Amino acid sequence: MTIPRKGRFAMLSAAVAGVVVAASVAVTGSAEAATTLGASAAQTGRYFGAATSAFKLSDTPYMTILNREFTSLVPENDMKWDATEPQQGRFTYTNGDRLVSHAQSRGMTVRGHALLWHAQQPAWAQSLSGAALRSAAINHVTQVATHFRGKIHSWDVVNEAFADGGSGGRRDSNLQRTGNDWIEAAFRAARAADPGARLCYNDYNTDGINAKSTGIYNMVRDFKARGVPIDCVGLQSHLGTTLDSTYQQNIQRFADLGVDVQITELDVQQGGNQAGIFAAVTRACLAVARCTGITVWGVRDSDSWRTGQNPLLFDANGNKKAAYTAVLDALNAGGPTTPSSPPPSSPPPSPAPGGCTAALTLNSWNGGYTATVRVTAGTSAVSGWSVGVAVPAGGAVTNTWNATNTGASGQVTFRNVGYNGQIAAGGSTEFGFQGTGTGPAATPACTAA
Ligand code: XIL
Hints:
The protein contains eleven helices and 17 strands. By secondary structure, it is α/β, with parallel strands linked by helices. Helix 6 (130-147) packs parallel to helix 7 (182-193). The site of (3S,4R)-3-hydroxy-2-oxopiperidin-4-yl beta-D-xylopyranoside (XIL) has 11 residues, from loops.
């Protein structure tokens, strides 16, 4: 379905709410289900995010939900071209920076949205064309990606460049009129500016196998064949009251090209089977190893751009809707790891007399990973344990479950939480963490208390 765009929200400046110290997410053991979207998704190696805006940072009831539930955020408007380069060559990053710094303080990852798009261009860009527009656009990509370098998990480098309807071709726009190679030029510039960010092509009406998604599929296949840097495809998934029966198949065919897929702007019109559609989208993502995360386009219905459609997981009062429970249940049923997890990076431990051993399994992608650590007691029971992990330089731990961590980079120590300190002789327990950069390679050291 096509969603009419409403006028963009006025961007209000707001004082950043008091800095909150990042807390590790401790969830209950495998016998009990995780109780937040983020923790539950993390157990499958995925993130669960929400679109937000700097002006929301001072909305306490809103922030309570954002901080509790989500492990990723994306600026709904604050990193768009009109917001970041209102006059040519004059860049304003204040609101984007606020959101990044909030995310970092909470251990959330950030999706960057969007470097180039036909909509929400500043007036000066709208009036350019030809070579002048091309060079302004590439400069925009370079400047913005450089400013946020190292802080963005995934960038929507190009947004909505394909036409609706049956053509499977490009949308007409001032950018398209600079030449069909504008998209690959943007991806190359983004890679050069921030080599650590995953680079995504993002679009809507791609919620199944159709002419538009096939046009995008052919472009991605061509990019992969020619070495144009692209790492992911974003399926916005602004949904109506039905879900295409080929939704999962479509995710799978992109994954099979060797790119990740992310559900980037999920919202579902209320009035049909809203909870069922949210759950089906979640299950479809979980079923494909390279579908690495889901982002909903807002938190409460009252925050949504789809005024009156109540398309989100929380009602205007911040209460969890049936759709929330459906998504959480689907995530919790999703299993602990993706089927493509690489084999353990260290050999299985041999029993340690009196002490404990730890074995770490990684599920890595370009720029991040989740680690599962199995702690095994030796010939006697332990009543508490700590595990030392060497986190490679340049990366950091962003999220932990079933343990608490001291430090996030360099040498990081994980300690048991209340319910998993006791391990019987020869028995074991698991904890996990998520990190940026390259995953730890060495076998972690385990110390029994
Ligand atoms: C929307 C925002 O939610 C609104 O606040 C703004 O007025 C218009 O843009 N596809 C996209 C998003 O990629 O950037 C759009 O966001 C929704 C559709």
